[in-house]
């Protein structure tokens, strides 16, 4: 059954108007007709089974059934520096959404080569991956923040994955993964020594992801997978 994303819908609605872009996809691309059954999600845990009652520029549907899914106790939060090649960041967001990331924060680090991102484009990738993977919760995406600003907002620490071999690090897979899991992933040039020191003063535990050096986006997907497996 085809699934569409409508963020501003609530459990008590009986008739829903699809956004123009989703209406176009339903009626022009998929050529759905009145009487066809579709699914709607709002990215907040709700699933609506609906009947298409009006096609056109702003399609309308009648709600047949509503279900709500309780969120998992575990939350996976990845704070990651956008890659120089934006395609790699987009790939990370798609795959991390499919695996089960809950929250992504974008970091502007001292060694960052990309200092601008188009949030609208990234949000569309999250929506598409959420629908494709049959998830009912869309990951939360936070706009680019300087590393120091982000760190100062965090109260309970987390993990920081970095590549400096002269520091005391443990492998992440040997750690106990908490329910509220937060890890920092740096840019292609790694975190600066000053950024690492700042994170340590904020109760972030230094970790390594193994003996192989991973690309930024690969590291992000690896830690999401590891966190999901550890708490399965």
UniProtKB/TrEMBL annotation:
Q: Which residues cross the membrane?
A: none
**Protein name (Swiss-Prot/TrEMBL):** Ribosomal RNA small subunit methyltransferase E
Protein function: Specifically methylates the N3 position of the uracil ring of uridine 1498 (m3U1498) in 16S rRNA. Acts on the fully assembled 30S ribosomal subunit.
| Taxonomic lineage | Bacteria, Pseudomonadati, Bacteroidota, Flavobacteriia, Flavobacteriales
Q: Which residues form a coiled coil?
A: none
Q: Which residues form the Ribosomal RNA small subunit methyltransferase E methyltransferase domain?
A: 72-227
Localization recorded for this chain is: Cytoplasm
Q: Which reaction does it catalyse?
A: uridine(1498) in 16S rRNA + S-adenosyl-L-methionine = N(3)-methyluridine(1498) in 16S rRNA + S-adenosyl-L-homocysteine + H(+)
The record places domain Ribosomal RNA small subunit methyltransferase E PUA-like at 18-63
Q: Where is the signal peptide?
A: none
Kindly state which keywords UniProt assigns to this record, in alphabetical order.
Cytoplasm, Methyltransferase, rRNA processing, S-adenosyl-L-methionine, Transferase
């Amino acid at each position: 059954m085809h699934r569409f994303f409508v963020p501003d819908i609530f459990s008590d609605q009986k008739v829903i108007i699809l956004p123009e872009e989703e209406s176009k996809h339903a009626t022009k691309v998929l050529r759905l007709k009145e009487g066809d059954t579709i699914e709607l999600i709002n990215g907040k845990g709700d699933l609506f089974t609906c009947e298409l009652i009006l096609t056109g520029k702003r399609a309308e549907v009648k709600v047949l059934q509503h279900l709500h899914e309780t969120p998992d106790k575990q939350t996976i939060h990845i704070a990651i520096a956008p890659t120089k090649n934006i395609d790699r960041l987009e790939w990370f967001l798609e795959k991390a959404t499919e695996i089960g990331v809950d929250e992504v924060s974008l970091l502007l680090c001292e060694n960052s080569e990309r200092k601008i991102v188009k949030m609208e484009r990234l949000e569309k990738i999250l929506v598409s991956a959420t629908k494709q993977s049959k998830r009912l919760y869309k990951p939360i995406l936070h706009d680019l923040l300087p590393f120091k600003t982000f760190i100062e907002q965090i109260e309970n620490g987390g993990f920081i994955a970095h590549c400096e071999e002269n520091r005391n690090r443990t492998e992440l897979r040997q750690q106990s993964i908490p329910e509220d899991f937060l890890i920092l992933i740096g840019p292609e040039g790694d975190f600066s020594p000053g950024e690492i020191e700042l994170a340590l003063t904020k109760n972030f535990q230094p970790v390594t992801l193994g003996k192989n050096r991973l690309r930024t986006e690969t590291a992000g997907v690896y830690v999401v997978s590891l966190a999901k497996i550890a708490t399965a």
